[in-house]
Structure formats: C-alpha cells, structure tokens
Amino acid sequence: AQSVTQLGSHVSVSEGALVLLRCNYSSSVPPYLFWYVQYPNQGLQLLLKYTSAATLVKGINGFEAEFKKSETSFHLTKPSAHMSDAAEYFCAVSDGQAGTALIFGKGTTLSVSS
Amino acid sequence: DTGVSQDPRHKITKRGQNVTFRCDPISEHNRLYWYRQTLGQGPEFLTYFQNEAQLEKSRLLSDRFSAERPKGSFSTLEIQRTEQGDSAMYLCASSSSTGFNEKLFFGSGTQLSVL
C-alpha cells in the first residue's frame, strides 16, 4: 500500500524567506510523486510531479522538489516566499498505472507574513 | 476549455435526505474521478470512470453512494439517506492522458453539510 506523510500541518514564513514543506512517502513499487496547491475556493492545481526522469523537479511559480530515495522524501521548496504563495499544499503518490487513484497527504497550510 | 465544473457549490441537507451532485469534466477528457475531502484531511479517492465505465470504487464508497457517467461526459454522485458523517467537500477531477503522463484537473468542489 502507498501513503504519504506531510510533516507539519501549518508552516509560517516571512515574505522573501525560504519555503520548505516536508513530505515522506511509503511505496512498495517505484512511486510517482506529486505536489498540488489549493487556493481558497479553488480546485487543486498541480505544482509539479516526479516520474523517475530526474530527481530534482521544477514546477510552476518557482517551486521545486527533490526526490530522495534513501530518505523516502519529496520535500517542496521555494527560495523566496511571496504573499501569493499562501495556500494549502498537498503531497500525493501513485504507482503510475493508468487510472490509478492518487493518494494524498493531509496537507500543509502555508502562511506568508509581510 | 472552461475547466472542471461542479454543481452545486454548496448543499445543506437534513440527515436522511438524498442529495445529488453533478460534475462536468473538461470536454474530451475520458477519465473522471470523485474524491472526498474532510476538514484537516487530504482528498480521499472514491471512484473512477473511464468513459462511461466505472472501473474502480474505494471501500469508502458505501452502498448509500452511487456514481454514474451515462454518456461518458458529465457524472453524478448520489448519496442516499445522508448521515452527518457525509459532511465533506466532494471533488471531481478529469484527465485525458494516461500512465505517468496523466494530469488531473480538479473542480472547485461541492461542499455538503448534513444537519
């Protein structure tokens, strides 16, 4: 069975500071890993995904994530936070098979203060 | 391409009543998913369609839940004899690609409150 654990339900940073949102996964097969963002009253949007092509994945809005098999981690980072980054972020895993449902973590709420 | 549309945005009902939600996927997307999201949790998979065929159902989908996608376009999710535990955000997502290239597009959800 696959699962993801997001460490920290709430992260607060100052504008311009580094953003680090943590995600650890468990999977019996090579995983496909995703980060989604959910802004208030909007649907989830895909930020980036890892599908084994490269361990460092760059996404939209300046976010990136690094797949570390030895640590079973897929942490999301952004060098400099912007006020518009305030949202809820979800890490998700799948086995990559067509139609297989994504398994989501519980989410991390990111707050950005000026 | 107007995105995935869900109706209604909010639904308040009394315990024991039946409710039905609708999802209109992005046109020509052959895959459609339903998820449920409760407060403080990530989305949980409920069921999945490829065209009109319902290919997978989660054990979360009790007998009171039924989903259809009769013509392979829009989908409905019905909950019969609602319970307070059914209160949640119901999310729909669609996609057209397959395998590791699959990208899900999510709607804004239907927020259900069971009183």
Descriptive terms for the model:
heterodimer, A: about 110 residues, mainly beta, six-stranded mixed β-sheet, five-stranded antiparallel β-sheet, globular, B: about 120 residues, four-stranded antiparallel β-sheet, about 0% helix, about 50% strand
> What gyration radius of chain A follows from the Cα positions, in whole Å?
13 Å
Q: Helical proportion of chain A?
A: under 10%
Oligomer category:
heterodimer
Mean pLDDT of chain A: 91
Low-confidence parts of chain B, pLDDT < 50 over ≥5 residues? none
Q: Major sheet of chain B, described briefly?
A: 7 strands, mixed
Figure out the total of helices of chain A.
0
Notes on the structure:
The complex is a heterodimer of chains A (114) and B (115). Chain A is mostly beta strands and 114 residues long. Chain A has no helices and eleven strands. Chain A has strands at residues 3-7, 10-14, 19-26, 32-38, 44-50, 56-58, 64-68, 73-78, 87-94, 103-104, 108-113. In chain A, strands 2, 4, 5, 9, 10 and 11 form a six-stranded mixed beta sheet that branches. In chain A, β7 and β8 (73-78) form a beta hairpin. Chain A starts with a strand and ends with a strand. In chain A, 35% of the residues are buried. Helix content of chain B is 0%, strand content 49%. The model of chain B has no long low-confidence stretch (mean pLDDT 91). Chain B has strands at 5-7, 10-13, 19-24, 31-37, 44-50, 53-57, 65-68, 75-79, 88-95, 105-106, 110-114. With 115 residues, chain B is mostly beta strands. In chain B, the strands form two sheets. In chain B, strands 2, 4, 5, 6, 9, 10 and 11 form a seven-stranded mixed beta sheet that branches. Chain B has a four-stranded antiparallel beta sheet with strand order 1-3-8-7, with no helix packed on it. The termini of chain B are far apart. Chain B is globular. Chain A binds chain B through residues 9, 32, 36, 41-46, 49, 51-52, 90, 92, 96-99, 101-107, and chain B through 3-4, 31, 33, 40-45, 48, 50, 55-56, 58, 91, 93, 98-109.
